[in-house]
Amino acid sequence: MLFNVDKCVVMHLGNRNKKFNYSMGDTEIKTVTNQKDLGVLVSNSIKYSEQCSEAAKAGNKILGLIRRNIQFKSKDIIVRLYKALVRPKLEYCVQAWSPYCKKDIAVLEQVQKRATKMIVGLYNLSYEGRLKVCELTTLEKRRIRGDLIETYKILKGFENVDHKKFFHLNSDCKTRGHSLKLSKCRSSLDLRKYFFSQRVVDYWNRLPQHVVEADTVNTFKNRLDKFDKYD
C-alpha cells in the first residue's frame, strides 16, 4: 500500500529534539505543531488546551442548535438532549487527554453550565444548585469516577492488561487504608504527573475497603457512588 505523502506530517516532541527534516522519496514531509489523531487534537507540547477548546466549541454548537429549535426547555428534555448530544462531545476519548490546567477544566465545565442555565426555572440558581436539581455532577468529577472504575477493572483483572505495567501496589502493610493501596512514582514533568496511572493514585487510596473489594464492576460503581468523598 502506497503512502499519501500529502497526508503525512512530522511533529517534533521534546525540548532537546534536533528537529530533523524527513522525506518520502523526493518529497519533504511538512512539519506541524499540532495534529488530529483519531479525533483528538495533539500538540507538540503534549498539552491539550486546543483539544479542550475544540471539544467545548463542538458542545456549544449543539447547545445552540437545541436553543434555537426546542421551544419548551423543561428539565427532562434538556437533560436528555444534553446527555445524548452534548456531553459525548466533551468526553470523547477523555481518558487520553484529561485536562489538568484550571483554565482547560473551566472551558469544558462552562458548556455544562450553559446547558443547565437553559432549563426553565433554573437560571437564577447557582451552578451547584442546578446540578443537584438535574441530578448531574461536574465533568471533572465524572472524569475522576471514570479513572477509578478503570483502575478497579485493571487491578481486578477485568481488563486484559497487566496491572504491573501501570501501577505499583504499596507493600507497606502498616499504612492506613484498604488492602490495594497504590504507590505514586516521583514525577518531574506534568506529562508524567497527570498521566492516568499517576493522577488516579490519590483518589484510589482514599477509597474504603468495602468499595475496592467489590466482586463485580456494577457493585463497585454502586458503592463508589455512595462514597461521595472522591471529589
Commentary on this structure:
The protein has 231 residues and is mostly helical. It is 48% helix and 9% strand. It has eleven helices and eight strands. It has a two-stranded parallel ribbon. It has a two-stranded antiparallel ribbon with strand order 2-3. It has a two-stranded antiparallel ribbon with strand order 5-6. A hairpin with a 2-residue loop joins strand 5 and strand 6. The chain is flat. It starts with 8 loop residues before the first strand and ends in a 5-residue tail after the last helix. The model has no long low-confidence stretch (mean pLDDT 90).
Number of domains: 3
Largest sheet: 2 strands, parallel
Q: Low-confidence runs (pLDDT<50, min 5 residues)?
A: none
Structural class: mainly alpha
Give the percentage of residues in beta strands.
5-15%
Gap from first CA to last CA: 49 Å
Rg, Å, rounded: 21 Å
Strand count: 8
Number of helical regions: 11
Shape: flat
Order of strands, widest sheet: 1-4
Helix residue percentage? 40-55%
Order of helices and strands: EEEEEEHHHHHHEEHHHHH
> What number is the mean pLDDT?
90
Summarize the topology.
Layout: E1 9-10, E2 23-24, E3 27-28, E4 30-31, E5 34-37, E6 40-43, H1 49-69, H2 75-91, H3 94-97, H4 102-117, H5 127-134, H6 139-156, E7 168-169, E8 182-183, H7 190-193, H8 196-199, H9 201-205, H10 209-212, H11 217-226
Parallel strand pairs: 1-4
Antiparallel strand pairs: 2-3, 5-6, 7-8
